[in-house]
């Protein structure tokens, strides 16, 4: 095997290892962020549960209990939605990093393939022009297909993000409406009990 081929193989192996390390770094960073988010959420939930348990112990009648539950429903729903959004943001960031790495790899591969095709075309024997043209055409078609798939994937991610935002708004509105109904019912029950 000639030295140039050996050098190219070593270079490709180094590039593959560097890419693997970058991917692992992105995945680990996302995992680390998720662990941190979950620890904060657990700590906050435990503190809130202790506080709410104390408040429940001080309630005197069912109307107060209904008012209490209604009062904590909206903030709890907002916290759940915020947590979901944080998880989505972390996953989205990791996904973007991986897509960026992939795009860089594909761009580099395309560049090297174009260079190889040009080198092959320069050294090709006479009469092989149509075969070279076919190779170049096939490469261009593959590149265009990749670009189309990449654009479609980005559009799908955008649609998913818009759907998450719509679902979040719907959840918050539903919780807000349920809280209002529960508060009204509690006031009505308190007024009826006082008469």
From TrEMBL:
Pfam families (UniProt xref): Phasin_2
Q: What InterPro entries has UniProt attached to this entry? A: Phasin, Phasin_subfam-1
* Domain of life assignment: Bacteria
- Location of the Phasin domain: 7-106
Q: What is the name of the protein in this document?
A: Phasin family protein
Q: Which organism is it from?
A: Oligella ureolytica
Please state the gene responsible for encoding this protein.
Answer: phaP
């Amino acid at each position: 095997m000639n030295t140039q081929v050996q050098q190219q193989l070593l270079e490709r192996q180094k590039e593959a290892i560097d890419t693997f390390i970058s991917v692992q770094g992105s995945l680990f960073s996302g995992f680390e962020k998720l662990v941190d988010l979950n620890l904060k959420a657990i700590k906050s939930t435990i503190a809130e549960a202790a506080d709410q348990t104390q408040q429940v112990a001080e309630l005197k009648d069912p109307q107060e209990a209904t008012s209490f539950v209604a009062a904590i429903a909206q903030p709890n729903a907002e916290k759940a939605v915020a947590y979901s959004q944080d998880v989505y943001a972390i996953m989205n960031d990791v996904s973007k990093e991986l897509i960026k790495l992939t795009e860089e790899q594909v761009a580099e591969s395309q560049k090297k393939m174009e260079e190889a095709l040009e080198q092959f075309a320069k050294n090709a024997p006479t009469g092989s022009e149509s075969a070279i043209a076919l190779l170049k055409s096939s490469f261009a078609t593959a590149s265009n297909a990749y670009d189309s798939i990449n654009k479609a994937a980005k559009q799908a991610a955008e649609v998913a993000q818009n759907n998450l935002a719509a679902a979040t708004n719907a959840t918050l509105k539903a919780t807000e409406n349920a809280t209002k109904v529960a508060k009204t019912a509690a006031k009505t029950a308190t007024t009826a009990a006082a008469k």
